[in-house]
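W.,

You were right to be curious about this one. When I first looked at the sequence I had no strong expectations either way, so I just let the prediction run and decided to look at it fresh. Below is the sequence, 89 residues in total, followed by the output.
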Amino acid sequence: MLPSIGITELVVLGVVAVLLFGKRLPEVARNVGKGYGELRKGLTELQSTINTEVDSPRSSASDKRRLSGPAPDDLDEPTAPSLPPPPEE
C-alpha cells in the first residue's frame, strides 16, 4: 500500500519548488498541468480505440474469402510461358 502524502511533505515540496523555479513557478505549473491533460486525453483516446477493436465483431471466414478475392478453385490453372530452348553452343 502506498503511503499518503501529509501536510509536512507538501510544504517541503512547495519550498523546494519555489527555490528551484522562483518567478517561473506559475509557468512551470501551467506547463505541467497542460502536459498532464494531454497525457490523460491521449490515454482516453487509446483506451477507446482498444475498446472499439475488442468490441468489434470478428470477421468470419466467408468475409475473409469475399475480401481476398475468388477462391482458388474458381481460378484457371496457372501456366508457365512457353519459351524456346536456349541455343546450343
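Here's what jumped out at me. The chain has a mean pLDDT of 81. And, maybe more interesting for your project: The CA atoms of residues 72 and 79 lie 15 Å apart.

Coffee later to discuss?

I.
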